[in-house]
Amino acid sequence: MTRPYTPWLLLALALTLAALYLFPLYWMYVTSLKSASEIYFNPPTFWPLAPDTSIYPQVWFGRTMSTFLWNSVVIASGVTAITVILGTGCAYVLARYRSVWVDVGLFLILMLQVLPASVMITPLFVGFNQVGLLNYPRTAVVLAAAAKAMPFFVVLVRATFMSVPRELEEAALVDGNSRVGAFFSIVLPLARNGILVCAILTFMSAFGEFIYSKSIIQEKNLQPASVGLSGFLGPNSSDWNAIMAYSAIYVTPILAVFVLLQRRIVSGLTSGALK
Amino acid sequence: MTVQIELNNIDKHYGTFHALKGVSLAIEKGSFVALVGPSGCGKSTLLRSIAGLESITSGSLRIAGETMTGVPPRKRDVAMVFQSYALYPHMTVEENLTYSLRLHGVHKPEAKARAAEVAATTGLSALLHRYPRELSGGQRQRVAMGRAIIRNPKAFLFDEPLSNLDAALRVHMRKEIRALHDRLGATSVYVTHDQVEAMTMADHVVVMRDGCIEQQGAPLELYDRPVSRFVAGFIGSPAMNFIDAVVAEDGRTAVLQNTDGGTVPLPSPLEPGRSIVVGLRPEHLRVVEHQGTFQITVGAIESTGSTTFISSADDLITLVQADRTSIAAGDRVSLAIPEIHVHVFDPETGLRL
Questions:
Q1: CA-based nearest distance B80→chain A, Å
Q2: B78 and B212 share a domain?
Q3: Contact at 8 Å (CB) between B114 and B42?
Q4: Given an 8 Å threshold on Cβ–Cβ distance, is B133 in contact with A167?
Q5: Which chain A residues are within 8 Å of B78, Cβ to Cβ?
Q6: Was domain A65-270 assigned CATH 3.30.70.1400?
Q7: Is ipTM beyond 0.90?
Q8: Per-residue model confidence as pLDDT tens digits over A178-231
């Protein structure tokens, strides 16, 4: 009896949750366009009385955001490059060979995922200091964040490789290809979508990386945008529309990429590349 | 005739599992050899060992006179057709066909010409620019075949290539594969669990069981003189009837158990009182008015129009008649069989006596 109503109920629930989750995003954009006094209105206004965009160029130049964003891009690219190159090989081996050691390897990789960055940072800092890596702080952050991103990438890409039938590789071997050749000409093209999606997700999360950057990079012009944002927050910070404008500039590119690639990302995560 | 593939005392272990136990086999150039057996008998493992996809634990393997033990698949110059066809999903039919040629450095125009030629012989000309996902099962099967024949390899290896097709197409492709084999003068090794495929397609049938070769020979030789109860039960459809029996006083007839003292003649004399198993093929049993040597109560009657299958009420005996019958379920009928069609096996070892 209730069956026709259930989907509506669930849909309403989903929409409510989505609205709750997306409200801060909306609030960020709206607040950035309000005047300093309007921010403190009670009851608050849900649409700015006189939208004012002049805060954006002010924040961009006043806060040297181009430097911060460039550092974010450098760090995220480095993390993605290391993760994709090493992680793809690792995931392939873990997908194709079955032994006790592979299981042990998978377990250790999942362990890495369990350890939070805030716990890892102290030993990493001490270790990096001893080998002199702190003189190259962005490299140090890239290495630390790549290690953090690796488990997620390996586990997801391994699943993609497992969806490529082994017989295709065997056919390529019999057809005259080598093991490595078969990997590059058969397996990799078929797993491409899955790898691409995981790479994008890795890039996005590295773009917002904060803990390692904040702790390791002291020099201001090497810091990424996430650390730059925390520079606003002091004991007396009340520059809310500047903070919101900074956040909007920081977040919008990521959001745009996600919206554009949304369909591919979802299909790449849920289905195999085949059939 | 020269030997194209020579297997000598091949052993294969997967951990503690002994998959192949000292298999020796010589495959002549130009012959069509079928490897049959129930699943898990090692027939696919043997084929994959020939292709080089499995390493052999011990023994030696020669293809066209060259020792191939430990040689990677790409240097063996064999072609394989997989059960799932294993077509490359991201390549068109033409690219699938020419993949091996491109790997061997054949120039593009020549590769394309060869692909067109192969497509013409396999009926794929109109489909060259389609992707595998846009083809039907039968068409995919043809692409898999085409990919094998384009190279002119030293041997074709087939791993149950027809098991994903429907029955009508299977019968059709059976003939086509055999015709292709004859036209190319190729050497083929064909793995199947379907004895009908093996019997109809092959010159030489190898029956495998638990990693060993149970019997090999021409198809009709296996049908006429199975060396064991296993081969007898595996070859022929419907399967042979096996009945426990005891050799009678005269040594020339066997008294069947569970049939109220019915008898069958023996092809050669045996010592009286000995326990045996007699094998009677359903198509050799005849319903007779008089002179039947044993009787059954009819259970089920199934007719396909051309043939009639009659089984006994206790399900011990099945027989096949070519013509229609007036026999009804519950009737008591007399059966006879010529002595040359009676197979006798040892109940302990299962070997032919």
A1: 7
A2: yes
A3: no
A4: no
A5: 174
A6: no
A7: no
A8: 999 999 999 998 888 889 889 988 998 899 888 899 888 888 888 898 888 888
